[in-house]
Structure formats: structure tokens, C-alpha cells
User: What shape does this take?
Amino acid sequence: MADQSVQWTTHPIQAFDEIATQWQQLNQKTANSLLLDPRFVKPLIKYFGESEMLIALARHHETLVAASILTKVGFGQWQTFQPSQAPLGMWLCTPDYFHNRSLYQSLTRSLPGTVLTISITQQDPKLLARPVDDKHFSTLDYITTARLDIPEDFEAYWQSRSKNVRTSVGKAKRRLEKEGKKITFDVGKALNNIHDDVKKYGQLESDGWKNNTGTAVHIDNDQGKYYTEMLSAFAPEQCQIWRYYFDSELVATDLCINDEETIFILKTTYAEPWQRYSPAFSLHVDGVEHCSKIGLKSIEFYGPSMQWHKKLTDDERVMYHLTYYTSSLVKTLKERLKI
Assistant: This one.
């Protein structure tokens, strides 16, 4: 169990390259997630980080037991680095230290200035079990997210889904066939094609509603540069870009990374003029079949569970935030004032 001998050191964010090997070794011992792999994290820092962020490393004697990237978000308030492109907060920890107050007390002493709270954002209970609230810790629901255990027998799986869903997909495909449209699902992963695939993704997204909110990916904005660099780091073995065509027109696409068992769908977009044919949903149905054929075990969606997720899977779980309060009084006041 954790004890007072746990010691944290802090380092400027510019030192991430120097600690990346240690970070990955701890990742492999704990979460073992591509979403916390340095290949995923480094471009996040480059395009969405701030120069004042800190890397914090905790050791019990000589053994690294926790690591995080932290940013100050207000007087006395720190939280894990959490750009919107990251499904998980930047936190690695061996499970037996996660809910031990001494780990956070030591971190508090290592951070500059007054520290009142430390928030660990967007945690997955499959990776770190959700702690029980007490006078120094509180948790908050983040989102309900979905996953799918990929079936070995796709046809049996598809027959187990709602008849209405199967009928709707079938009708859409038959209408397209009557219009003379050829439907094609394919997968891109070649390193020299990543730039063009992200560019085409951005063109689809920029033609849709996200363009009006300023949140669309574009090959020349930070999001486009991030996805190009990050996907290139995983290509070709651990990168998949799903593409769905009507004839030669790209109508839906997903940006994904995968390890030996799990594929993570990071971004999805589709051509809104073809919305009546539900191209994104059909893309995902064919994507499940593709995963079944190549032997992957699960799909993680890591976004708010939506109706289309429920058409594919019944497996959902609630992600959460954890906040540590240096004083139980601070926790009580914050809860009473609802701040």
C-alpha cells in the first residue's frame, strides 16, 4: 500500500521527450492504453498544451507508481491536462495508490503555491476503479460511454440486433442500389496517405454543422495537424481510417487507432447531403464486420453514448472525474456553495 515514502518530482512540460520512456513503461504496467501512449500524448502537448504545464512523477523508493500532466486552472486548483481530443485525462497510477490520501498529500507539497484541489479528469472505471467518496475525495459522473465486444460470428451478431435496425440498413442499401450507386467500405492505414485522409475527413466535417461552430477539423488547423501527426505515429500497424463511398464519393469516415485487441474510434464524420441513408451508421456496421474478420476483440467509442451506439451494443459504463481536497473544510464549503 502507499505510504509517506512516496515522493513526487515535477518537471516542465518541455521535458516530456526526456521522460517519455518512463511514462510508457508505467502506462504498460497500468492502463496499457494507446490513449496514454507517448505517440498519442506528445502531439496533444504540441498543439493544445500550454508552456506552464507540469509533468509530475511519483516514486515509491525507486519505483515509478504514478505520473501525470497537470495544469493550473484557478487559484489553488490543479487538474490533469484535458484537451477535447483526449478521451482520457493525463494520469497514470498503479491501482493501490489511486485512492490513497498520502499520494495526493505528497503531490500537494510538490506543486508550486497554494494547492486546494487536484482534479483527475475523465477516468475510465475499466482502467481505474471508481473510488468511494469521503471527506477528502469526491467523484462526479462524466459521461456514459459504449463499447462493443466484437463477435466472432458477425451474421449471428447482426441477427441478434433489433429487426427495425436491420430493416432500416437493408432498405437504405437497396434504395442506393436502385439508384445505381456502388457501396464500398475500405480501410486506409498507409503512412503516406494519412495527410490526404485527414484532409478529406476535414473537408467532410467543414461542409457540415461543425463548420458553423468553429470546431471542424481542417488540414491546416491545429486539430488537422494533430490528427495527421498522431495517426502517422501509429501507422501503419496501429492506425485505421475507415472510409465509406457511394460510387467514388466519400460519404463517411472514421479516424481510429488500434492495438492487438481493441480499436478506438476517435472521430466520425459524414456527408450531410446523404444523411437520409445513414452513411455513418452503415459505415460502423461494416466496421464491426471488418473487425470480426481481422480478429479484433472490442471497439471503444469513448464518447457520449448516443442512440446509434445502442443499436450496435448494450454495453455501457459511466466515466468519472475525481477531485482531491487538501482540506475537508474546502470540500464542505465547495459542496455547500456549489462552486
